[in-house]
Amino acid sequence: MPKRVKNKLRIIGGDWRSRQISFVDAPGLRPTPARVRETLFNWLQYDISGKQCLDLYAGSGALGFEAASRGAKAVVQVESNVHACRSLRDNVVVLSANTITIVQSDVLRYLENDALVFDAVFLDPPFGEDLVIQTCQKLEENGWLAKHARIYVETERFFDFSRGAAMPENWRQLKSKTAGEVGYHLFERS
């Protein structure tokens, strides 16, 4: 079996600013770029500290570690890839990140469990697998979201939110931008 190449990314804000986390190469894993993370956390600057956060399709863990670094009360990172989960756990140890919990599970299966309520959700599924809408629907239908939760969704640049099944009706899009081949969007549950 070929050796997996370790990659690194830098946390851009909060207590762990400039600290690096490592991640493995895995199919579909593409860490959220630093400039997108900076914009996202500017959008969420008053919505993270002391909050419960859920990082779905965690991958490199960039979004969850940024949230924890910026004072999130707790972060649950859900990832199905065993190697990615190992890297996430290693990073938790390196940073002494006792507010982060790693769950190795298929996200859609995880969302069928008894719900915990989260104030902020980061949703960055592998591109081209039609996971965005169904994941959003499960978050809403299965009771995972606080009353005014913020939901960050990262998609392909030209993702059509109106195709097929629809986004939850009570979600309002607050922000939307693109960077390269990525579209990133912030919703609020109302």
- CATH architectural name: 3-Layer(aba) Sandwich
Give the CATH topology.
Rossmann fold
Our count of domains comes out at 1
Q: What is the mean predicted local confidence, pLDDT?
A: 92
Task: Tell me the structural class.
Answer: alpha/beta
* Number of E-state strands: 9
CATH superfamily, please?
Vaccinia Virus protein VP39
Low-confidence stretches: 1-5
Number of helices: 5
- Largest beta sheet, briefly? 7 strands, mixed
Which CATH class applies here?
Answer: Alpha Beta
Give the helix level as a range of percent.
10-25%
Distance between the ends: 49 Å
Q: In percent, how much strand structure appears in the residues?
A: 25-35%
Would you kindly provide a written description of the structure presented here, covering whatever features stand out?
This protein is an alpha/beta fold and 190 residues long. The chain is built from 5 helices and 9 strands. It has a 7-stranded mixed β-sheet with strand order 5-4-3-6-7-9-8, with helices on both faces. The termini are far apart. The relative contact order is 0.16. The model is unreliable at 1-5 (pLDDT under 50).
